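TASK: fixed-backbone design
INPUT:
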């Protein structure tokens, strides 16, 4: 059995749905999204659902600024159905030796176009942490411990630097995705529960896809938006998509003691640390080869935010202290010690959480995969097979980048004018010797 569709999109995650939305917006009408799972159910809702325009990569920064513009437009037109807030991100450090590097990094990102950097060095420095201004930009760098404590008393007194990024916050990824899908469906986009099993091509271009239902769908255009399976779908085109999948976990629990304020920004601890075990616990862990790693130094980056209203005291915590590349399997493997490790790690920044040691409410763990290129730039644009496109490798920033990425893909596919950052995300960048030389010199964060 055979039928036709102008565009087939493989994947109903936030990338595929955004692609369909923007393609329908520029005039494509016969669009089919196929996915064996319900929309947005694989990895799109497994993050902190945050957004920020604070990026050290100028191409990503430009893309994120555009994406946040689009998110704000969607929030306005929908009555903010996806609950976008502007509470910001708060990067915190207690490292006296690293405070100058902390400030230098902030100044660098500000200079790239993230907005002005305002430095506050006194306790009466005119800083306000509370307004949710949707037009706020830049960041406030607090370098006075008393000022930090005045505005964020939940933080450790060790905090000597806090960077409050203002064009940042979070939203409901599920509600955003469903809103985009509903709008796309009104313009004729169809969603079917099926899996792409093969892609036929001849004469160097895509001709059709075969679905798990047994149907063949003739198509002019095909989009690989398969999330953690973007590489496997690329193989159906005889292409090697240059990505890896990295397992990331998330834990949530009921903060019934109210340690993390409901109106606080998303908070990130920027320092490496040793976990706070008591003397007996530390000795016991050190003596066992299987647990000794729990007494070693952990990487920076544990972060958390409040979730829900006053009646819902949920807290979300993420920390990629042992991120590992692996082939994606579902459900993803869970780490039984993850809740204890992230709670103790977060308590370094938020010492009130020590009250939960040994008596924390039952945690809920889930996770998904970051799909990453070597330099952490997404892939968006044409593939080396005519009629085939990719939107993927959105790493841990799929929710915040999806609107601009979908718009960019639609510009490629409709032969419209491309933004200046488009070239940075095309797969053919790896054919440029100068780019590959720069790629060989990236630091260990994988960020150009």
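OUTPUT:
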């Amino acid at each position: 059995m055979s039928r036709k569709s102008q565009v087939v999109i493989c994947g109903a995650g936030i990338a595929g749905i955004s692609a369909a939305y923007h393609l329908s917006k520029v005039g494509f009408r016969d669009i089919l999204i196929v996915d064996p799972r319900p929309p947005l159910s694989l990895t799109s809702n497994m993050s902190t659902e945050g957004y920020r325009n604070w990026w050290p990569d100028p191409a990503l920064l430009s893309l994120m600024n555009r994406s946040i513009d689009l998110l704000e437009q969607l929030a306005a037109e929908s009555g903010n159905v996806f609950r976008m807030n502007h509470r910001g991100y708060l990067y915190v450090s207690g490292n006296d030796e690293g405070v100058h590097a902390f400030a230098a990094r902030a100044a660098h990102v500000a200079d790239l176009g993230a907005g002005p950097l305002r430095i506050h060095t006194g306790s009466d420095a005119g800083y306000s942490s509370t307004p949710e201004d949707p037009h706020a930009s830049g960041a406030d760098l607090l370098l006075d411990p008393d000022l930090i404590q005045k505005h964020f008393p939940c933080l450790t007194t060790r905090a000597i630097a806090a960077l409050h990024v203002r064009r940042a916050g979070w939203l409901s990824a599920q509600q955003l995705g469903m809103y985009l899908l509903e709008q796309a469906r009104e313009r004729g986009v169809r969603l079917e529960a099926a899996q792409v099993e093969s892609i036929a091509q001849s004469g160097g271009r895509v001709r059709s896809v075969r679905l798990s239902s047994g149907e063949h769908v003739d198509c002019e255009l095909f989009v690989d938006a398969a999330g953690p399976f973007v590489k496997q779908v690329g193989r159906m085109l005889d292409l090697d998509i240059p990505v890896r999948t990295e397992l990331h976990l998330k834990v949530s629990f009921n903060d019934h003691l109210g340690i993390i304020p409901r109106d606080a920004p998303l908070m990130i601890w920027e320092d490496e640390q040793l976990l706070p075990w008591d003397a007996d616990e530390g000795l016991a862990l050190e003596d066992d080869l299987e647990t000794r790693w729990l007494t070693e130094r952990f990487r920076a980056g544990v972060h958390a935010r409040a979730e829900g209203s006053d009646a819902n005291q949920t807290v979300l915590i993420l920390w990629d202290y042992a991120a590992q590349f692996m082939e994606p399997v579902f459900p993803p493997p869970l780490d039984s010690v993850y809740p204890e490790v992230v709670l103790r790690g977060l308590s370094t920044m938020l010492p009130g959480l020590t009250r939960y040691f040994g008596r924390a409410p039952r945690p809920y763990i889930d996770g998904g995969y970051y799909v990453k290129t070597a330099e952490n730039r997404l892939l968006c644009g044409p593939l080396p097979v005519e009629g085939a496109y990719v939107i993927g490798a959105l790493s841990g920033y799929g929710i915040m980048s999806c609107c601009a990425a979908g718009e960019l893909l639609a510009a490629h596919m409709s032969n419209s004018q491309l933004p200046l950052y488009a070239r940075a995300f095309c797969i053919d960048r790896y054919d440029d010797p100068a780019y590959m030389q720069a790629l060989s010199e990236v630091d260990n964060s994988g960020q150009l």
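COMMENT: The chain has a mean pLDDT of 93.
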